[in-house]
UniProtKB/TrEMBL annotation, chain A:
PANTHER family: PHOSPHATE TRANSPORT SYSTEM PERMEASE PROTEIN PSTA
Spans annotated as Disordered: 1-22
Main location: membrane
Transmembrane feature ranges: 34-55, 95-116, 128-151, 157-177, 209-230, 277-298
Keyword Cell membrane assigned: yes
Compartment(s): Cell membrane
Protein name per UniProt: Phosphate transport system permease protein PstA
InterPro entries, alphabetized: MetI-like, MetI-like_sf, Phosphate_PstA, Phosphate_transprt_permease
Keyword RNA-binding attributed: no
Molecular function in Gene Ontology: phosphate transmembrane transporter activity
Role summary: Part of the binding-protein-dependent transport system for phosphate; probably responsible for the translocation of the substrate across the membrane.
Similarity comment text for this entry: Belongs to the binding-protein-dependent transport system permease family. CysTW subfamily.
UniProtKB/TrEMBL annotation, chain B:
Record membrane topology: Multi-pass membrane protein
UniProt similarity note: Belongs to the binding-protein-dependent transport system permease family. CysTW subfamily.
Organism lineage string: Bacteria, Bacillati, Actinomycetota, Actinomycetes, Micrococcales
Protein name: Phosphate transport system permease protein
Disordered: annotated span: 1-25
Example GO biological process: phosphate ion transport
Keywords attached to this entry: Cell membrane, Membrane, Phosphate transport, Transmembrane, Transmembrane helix, Transport
PROSITE patterns to which the protein is assigned, alphabetical: ABC_TM1
InterPro entries: MetI-like (IPR000515), MetI-like_sf (IPR035906), Phosphate_PstC (IPR011864), Phosphate_Transport_Permease (IPR051124)
Cellular compartments annotated: Cell membrane
Amino acid sequence: MSAVRTLDESAPPATTGVDDFGGKSTGRALTDQLARVVMWAAFVIALIPLVWILGTTVLKGGQMLLDASWWGNSQSGITARRVGGGAVHAIQGTLIQAFVTALISVPIGVLTAVYLVEYGRGRLAKTVSFMVDILTGIPSIVAALFIYAVWVVTFGFQRIGFAVCLALTMLMIPTVVRSTEEMLKLVPNELREASYALGVPKWKTIMKIVIPTSFSGIVTGVLLGLARVMGETAPLIILGPYTKVIATNLFDGLMATLPTMIYQEYSENLQPAVDRVWGAALTLILIIFLLNILGRFVGRFSKVRN
Amino acid sequence: MSSITGHSAIDELPTSDGRPPLEADRAGTGRLGDRIFGGLATGAGLLVVALVSLVGVFLVVQAVPSLLNNNANFLTSREWVASGAEPRFGIVDLLWATIVTSVIAMLIAVPLGVAVALFITQYAPPWLTRSAATLVDLLAAVPSIVYGFWGLTVAGQYFEPFAEVVDRVLGWLPVFEYTGTPSAKSTLAFAGLILAIMILPIVTAISREVFAQVPTTHKEGALALGATKWEMIRVAVLPFGKPGIISAAMLGLGRALGETLAVTLLLSALNTSSAFSFSIFGGGETFASRIANDAGEFDSAQKTGAYIAAGLVLFILTFIVNAAARVVIERRKAFTE
């Protein structure tokens, strides 16, 4: 506005009144336009890193993924100087650990959500809800240190795949609780009341009416939660050392995963290893994106919506 | 609820039709099945409470012996010799690096995230709204370690000229002094920038959720009084969303404080004898990166205890920040209901 004012001073005084009125709107219109430009710019700026990272990863790692041995071989016998080798050991490890993590955290998460929505009232429910929020905010490295303190220091067990699953479970539970909770809340009360009116006990109402109604929403939450924990690296570094060979036993010995494969190859600092870093990064991103997209896709079929 | 954050701003509102849910006791029949199922659900809830409490207990119990053995002041010392007969370790450097990187991340991510959220809820054409939100969410799907590697090998080189310009213009302030060692991509400032990208989806998701809840009557009222779109946002949307923005910032901060791998890969550790520097273009290690860097060397109880003590401080920091965010959300609910 002040800029317009200064321009006005050179104009004949007789028109000042009119110009003032016009100037004011122009100033406001300019601010409005400026805000519009800033918002668009913010969005474009936010997209730059996404496009840049994805572009780089595809360009540098794409070549590795086109090779059949990437999906068929492990890194067994491949030194850092040698080109090639596969990632199948790490892919298997990541998928197995994710599956077991889901197996533990889904029942706990869904039951906690059922408690919060269907049962919990008063102080205890508030405490549980608060603790879920705190659990959401726990850094993955702290979760890993906690499991280390329990698993290795207190019980004296080895660092194995299952310990990683426990740490990941802590990170996945709050995501499952929150998404399930939202979905259960969306189930109309009429359905519950109709079921009660027919004399169906509460637990059967929950199992046969409430959960099936919100099922696809819950699945979405689980898939998105899985996508979140699969990229976690800190618990793996502390609890699940890397190995180059195929290992599928969660309870014995070392087990490779994609994040630890990235970390390992990164520390080699040689070109063939760097190529493998990008290959593993692209593989991991692809898996996580697939889960994300699948999760959102399943969500479309939800019977209840916001 | 936002799939990215796990947090929900509309948490604990009445059910979709606006009525409070049925009272639990009246709906249960008291049959065996009901009692078992109810017990299981309550048990799961209690398990979550126990889990968080156990984290605190275990970290404290295992940190205390090392802390008692410590020959330096844990809170004021810059040294970090965790093992040996005379361990000396303190958290000053770690705390400094953690806070500087997180604050830089917040300073960038909060304004940008709010602007992106405003874009998605107020400005984006309808065909773009949904995909714009998904695209920003996808930033959260890129693993931390990939951010770190990308920053180190690809994006970092472009930060060098920026650091030099800042040094030339503002270098007389100790905060902006850039000496060239470590190189720009290994400084706290660049780590903060990468963290900003990583917490952007959280800040955006929560702000977006709150902005979407601004009552249409508020917005239309402002427009009807002759406000331009920006003025409408300033008088109707932003005041309504303020608590949401604050809690978004807190949750982003909580995430930035504990972010591990990206920072571990980027930051270059300081030489133990180097003088303390206030510059954001200095090196250092955060709590998380120090723990991750030395994860392979937890060989003695004393040493492990020292790192667990560092983890405990990080846990307390994030606990405070997240609890504060929660309080802000609670107050907003009290206000809107």
